[in-house]
Amino acid sequence: MLLSITTEHPPATDLGYLLHKHPGRLQTFDLSFGKAHVFYPEADENRCTACLLLDIDPVGMVRGKNRSQGDLLARYVNDRPYVASSFLSVAISQVLGAAMSGRCKDRPELADTPLPLAARIDVLPVRGGERFLRQLFEPLGYTVEAEAYPLDEKFPAWGNSPYFSVTIRGVTTLSQLLTHLYVLVPVFDNEKHYFVGEAELEKLLAKGGGWLTAHPEKDQITRRYLKHRYGLYREALSRLIEVEELQAPPDEQTASAEEETLERSVSLNDQRHGAVLAALKASGARSVLDLGCGEGKLLRQLLPENQFEQIVGVDVSIRSLEMAQKRLKLDRLPPRQAERLKLLHGSLIYRDRRLEGFDAAAVVEVIEHLDPPRLTALERAVFEFARPKIVVVTTPNQEYNVMWESLPAGQFRHADHRFEWTRAQFQAWAGRICQAFGYTVRYLPVGPEDEKVGSPTQMGVFEF
């Protein structure tokens, strides 16, 4: 099985920097199912091609499996050593993982630069034919060239086999190209060589969250990627829809800027994060969740505090997590610092066992972005299932809006806010949380406090 990636963008040898593989050397990597070889059949200023060749061991591929189940002969006589499948995805992840994640130590700006790239796969089994091939790649901006192979050249009446040599071309980053291949290659033949469970669902959301939500074939991609496991497919699709609904539309960036400008006069964002940080430090917490971490502004303040031995940021937006990674310079942190901090892609309205067992959680300016049904789901996900000992929640105080002359009467501070509560409404909600889940709560003002309308931000510190 051979994957070739070519660019003619001068200097074309920049491809070597992106792949972290020197064009002048043949490199071999041991994998659980065989070996992977990386080499460059051509490498000059005008054209460079890098090849990933898999040498799959048919015996090692099935070693250790239960021989009492299934067709024993079919385990050894099949097309797996010769076609692109989930084995290729694993090889991309393990051999080209830095390139797929968009890291380029020597030329960091290069990783974010779209380049004219062509990827050729020899050969790809496509259960669905050339039409399905185009349905998956063309919405991502690629042009597709597909060469079909007959079942038997001596018997043309038998028609074509499901095998194709496929070339896709497009102007994109290498990271994006590898991510698309990583997700889609196993989808074409609807098979995987390993168990598909919740970990695979998280991989799909992590790798596909930035583009799969808008793909017209996301249902079929999700179903096939998860090998028709209905429970996983249903959860994945729900979370992808959630991403689609909650990711900021283009005009929301303007709305966010307007909110930031509105609050800048009182340095409210800094005061809010300072108040949350103080509450978390006073709690004695050692492990902290930032739920809805956005671009990592609070995480950046948590990181210098040695009290916090484990810090995890969670957000539904892949783009926000990418911005947080850059803001926090995760690739440049000292190893001990980097071990303390982790970013997770996830929705706050579903139970997520990765979030259980933490001392504290911060939910900063999040709840007002949720419709009532989703807010109810968040309540259970945070207070019933994750159940940290301390939960710090902040939300705007609607009463304070009259203090901003530039904000029209009755208008929310942010275009995406579904509500903005008065102090009485927030306290009623918090009281219901305490009654339902066994917490107690205390309230703290954040920002300049007015005698009549209170402070611009209201904060509740929940404990149990």
Automatic annotation (TrEMBL):
Task: Enumerate the spans annotated as Methyltransferase type domain.
Answer: 289-380
Uppermost EC category: transferase
Gene3D superfamilies recorded: Hen1, N-terminal domain, Vaccinia Virus protein VP39
Q: Which residue intervals define the domain Hen1 N-terminal in the entry?
A: 1-240
Q: Does the keyword Metal-binding apply?
A: yes
- The yes or no answer to whether the keyword Transport is present is no
Q: Into which family does the record put it?
A: Belongs to the methyltransferase superfamily. HEN1 family.
Q: Which PANTHER family match?
A: HEN1, SMALL RNA 2'-O-METHYLTRANSFERASE
- Give the protein's recorded name: Small RNA 2'-O-methyltransferase
